[in-house]
Design goal:
Elements (H helix, E strand, L loop, with lengths): L5 E5 L8 H7 L4 E5 L5 H8 L4 E4 L6 H5 L6 E4 L9 H6 L3 E3 L6 H16 L2 H9 L18 E5 L3 H12 L3 E5 L10 E3 L2 H7 L2 E4 L13 H6 L5 E4 L8 H10 L4 E4 L19 E3 L8 H19 L12 H10 L1
Parallel strand pairs: 1-2, 1-3, 3-4, 4-5, 6-7, 6-9, 7-8, 9-10, 10-11, 11-12
Helix pairs in contact: 1-11, 5-7
Length: about 325
C-alpha cells in the first residue's frame, strides 16, 4: 500500500521513460503507475481508485468513467480527446484536460510536406527509381504550385498556421469553418461545397466528433476536381475510408496523403496501401523532440493543478465546474 498523497495512472505510455512526468508529480507527492490498458476491463481494474488519469490512446468510455471512484481529472496527451467520453466525465464531476497549443508547427509542416510530396510526385518517382526506372515522365502531369488553391477544412490553430505557410509558398488559400465568420489572414471563407469544387488541394484540420465523423464521404469526393489531392493530418474517421479508396481507384481525385486512419494500427491488407496515388505516415505528424517534451510537461501539470485544488490551463469541459460548485454547496 502506497503512502503517497495521490495515485495517478498513466494508462498507456509508449515512451521509454516517464521521468519528466514523475518529476512534476513529485511536487504533490503523487504515485505514478504506468500501465498498458488494452480494454475497458483492464482500465477499470487499475484506475478505479486513481485520483487522476494520464491518457494516450486508451478508450476512456462511460463504463470506465462510472467505475472511477475518486478520479478528479483525465488529462489527454494531445490536442484531440475523441477517445474520452467527455459528456460522461462531466456527468460524474471529472475535469478533462488537453494541450491544444502543442505540435502546431509540426502538424502544419506535415500537411505542407504531404502537399508537396503529392504535387511533385516525390514518393512515386522515388519508388520508380528504386525499381530500376529513371524517367521523370512517370510522374506526369506535374503543375507548378504557385497560384494553385489550397482549401482548408477547419481554420483553428493548426489550420491557420498551415494557411500561413501555404501563403508563403505562393498558394491561394480558402477555408471552410462554420464556427469562424472573420479572419485576419489572406484567406477566403467559403462553404464546403465551393471549397471541394474549386480547390486543387484539400487539407483537413478539424477535431473528430459527431459532427465531423465521415464528414468527407462518397458524395463529397465526387465534387472534387479530378486533379485534386486530399490531405488529412487530423483524425482518420473524418474521411470515409472505403469511399476514399473508391475515389482513388476510379481516378475521381488525383491522390491522397494522410497521417491518420480509422483503425490504428491498420490492418496490413488495407486496400489503400496498394495504390500508387496514396501516401501515408504512421500518425507521426505531432512528433518532434521539442513537442514531446512540451506535451509531457503540460499534460502532467494539468493533473498537478487539479490535485492542488485548481483548474488545468486547458479545460475541455468547463461546464463541469458548475456541478463541482453545486456539490461543494451541498
Amino acid at each position: 500500500m502506497s503512502n503517497k498523497n495521490f495515485k495517478v495512472v498513466y494508462t498507456d505510455s509508449y515512451h521509454p521513460t516517464v521521468s519528466a512526468e514523475q518529476a512534476e508529480l513529485d511536487e504533490i507527492d503523487a504515485e505514478l503507475i504506468v500501465a498498458e490498458c488494452k480494454n475497458e476491463n483492464e482500465t477499470i481494474a487499475i484506475c478505479k481508485d486513481a485520483d487522476a488519469l494520464l491518457v494516450q490512446h486508451a478508450k476512456i468510455t462511460k463504463k470506465v468513467i462510472k467505475n472511477l471512484k475518486k478520479c478528479r481529472v483525465i488529462a489527454r496527451f494531445g490536442v484531440g480527446y475523441d477517445n474520452v467520453d467527455v459528456k460522461s466525465a462531466t456527468e460524474y464531476g471529472i475535469m478533462v484536460a488537453n494541450v491544444p497549443d502543442y505540435c502546431i508547427d509540426e502538424v502544419s509542416s506535415q500537411a505542407i510536406a504531404l502537399i508537396m510530396a503529392l504535387s511533385r510526385k516525390i514518393v512515386l518517382l522515388n519508388n520508380s527509381i528504386k525499381n530500376g526506372l529513371w524517367d521523370h515522365r512517370i510522374g506526369s502531369p506535374i503543375y507548378k504550385q504557385s497560384g494553385q488553391i489550397l482549401g482548408i477544412i477547419g481554420l483553428g490553430r493548426i489550420g491557420s498556421v498551415t494557411a500561413k505557410k501555404a501563403l508563403g509558398l505562393g498558394f491561394k488559400v480558402q477555408a471552410y469553418d462554420p464556427y469562424i465568420s472573420h479572419t485576419d489572414l489572406d484567406v477566403a471563407l467559403v462553404d464546403l461545397d465551393f471549397l471541394l469544387q474549386t480547390s486543387d488541394f484539400v487539407s483537413i484540420h478539424t477535431p473528430l466528433n459527431e459532427e465531423t465523423y465521415h464528414m468527407i464521404g462518397k458524395d463529397h469526393l465526387k465534387k472534387m476536381k479530378k486533379s485534386a489531392f486530399l490531405i488529412n493530418t487530423a483524425r482518420g474517421a473524418i474521411i470515409d475510408e472505403s469511399a476514399l479508396y473508391g475515389a482513388l481507384k476510379a481516378g475521381l481525385i488525383a491522390g491522397a496523403g494522410v497521417d491518420v486512419l480509422e483503425q490504428e494500427p491498420p490492418s496490413p491488407d488495407n486496400p489503400l496501401f496498394k495504390l500508387d496515388n496514396f501516401i501515408i505516415t504512421p500518425h507521426s505528424a505531432f512528433y518532434s523532440e521539442d513537442s514531446n517534451k512540451l506535451l509531457s510537461l503540460e499534460t502532467t501539470r494539468a493533473v498537478v493543478a487539479v490535485l492542488k485544488g485548481g483548474q488545468p490551463r486547458s479545460l475541455v469541459n468547463p461546464e463541469v465546474l458548475n456541478l463541482l460548485n453545486e456539490n461543494k454547496e451541498k
